[in-house]
Hints:
Two copies of one chain form a homodimer.
Chain A: H1 12-29, H2 36-43, H3 47-53, H4 57-72, H5 81-97, H6 101-111, H7 116-143, H8 153-170, H9 177-192
Helix pairs in contact in A: 1-2, 1-4, 4-6, 4-7, 5-8, 5-9, 8-9
The structure holds a DNA duplex (30 and 30 nucleotides).
Amino acid sequence: MITSPSSVRRSERSRRAILRSALDLCAERGYGHVTIEAIAADAGVSKKTIYRWWPSKGAVLLEAFTDALIDATPFVDTGDIGADLRTHVAGAVKLLSVPPFGPAYAGILSELHHDDRLAQQLREQLVDPRVEEAIGRLRSAQDQGQIPPGADLPLAVEMLYGPVYYRHVLRKPVQDEETIATLVDHVLRSLRAPGY
Amino acid sequence: MITSPSSVRRSERSRRAILRSALDLCAERGYGHVTIEAIAADAGVSKKTIYRWWPSKGAVLLEAFTDALIDATPFVDTGDIGADLRTHVAGAVKLLSVPPFGPAYAGILSELHHDDRLAQQLREQLVDPRVEEAIGRLRSAQDQGQIPPGADLPLAVEMLYGPVYYRHVLRKPVQDEETIATLVDHVLRSLRAPGY
DNA sequence: GCGGAAACGGAACGTACCGTGTCGTGTCGT
DNA sequence: ACGACACGACACGGTACGTTCCGTTTCCGC
């Protein structure tokens, strides 16, 4: 995430204040009305300092969001793949449903399409690692015989996360626990059922 | 889509030029760099004329995109639900994969989070009708015994569209025909397989 | 310690685009 | 024929951009 001037002289105090202010402002005015100038003013920091370490507003919020997401959706292994997937998806849905994280992530996603570097960073730092984790958990369920050997695990992950993204970007109501359970059931069924 | 002054005196010539220019600019510079001023200049039109009929850049592109999408993804009924779903999803994926429509839709989605009216318009004019169409097609397959009576059809639609949105917003490579076929298969299987 | 490099906060800059207002022109309904 | 109204054009104040300059503070290396 750190961009240009390699140094240990960086002020950790300013860094934290910037990330904090970015999330706060995102909650109170919405991503679209968050500006670099406002972040700088709120954090008691010079604009220059922000531009020195981050290339854009999106990059600031990506760093803040990443920290939060990693805490919010740990990957557990209780031995019951259904329960663990429900827990994991529910964690992600819940995080997206509360400000400032929902609006923040929505804003980040919106920047991806005109910011190649941010898109690459999001995939490499956030999405791909978590997809790999999810596939790993599915594979361990495979080893325990809960999922057939030939199952298409990457597809399963997309079928799980897809509806979450779908509702989030279209601003439809987020899934409740029951809906998540039904979704997980269907995905697992689709892996177990024979082709036709 | 038409906003304020109800009239038949509207210049169809200007309207077409605006929609055309908006898509063109979106293709050549990307959604983020399209501005109302640029559209007006390119279309040989006054800014005022654009603001008279549309509330925002997003609304202009939503109108242009809607026209294209309706043409690109017709809903057919050949009697084979699998084949028809593959055709439909492939149509949507293909449209999103070519400029200017992919970038345009991505940009529109990005506006949703800070533009309530645009979000409502998108859902009412584009998403919900097509979801209803899809559910209707699934229901007719149900009547023909290709899908069990109690199947959760709205969930099926989310499982189909979800991965498409997922890849689009994250800018992952679009699905090829084989992947789409596998996805459709899995969704249909999840409806047919018994609970566990 | 001490000197200097570098990050810092603050203020100001020109630029781009916003959304609105005004004005004269042309055209379409009545 | 006439009047209403959409049109193109241009100018306006406002906001946020990204950059630059300045003087200050902090910390690394000698």
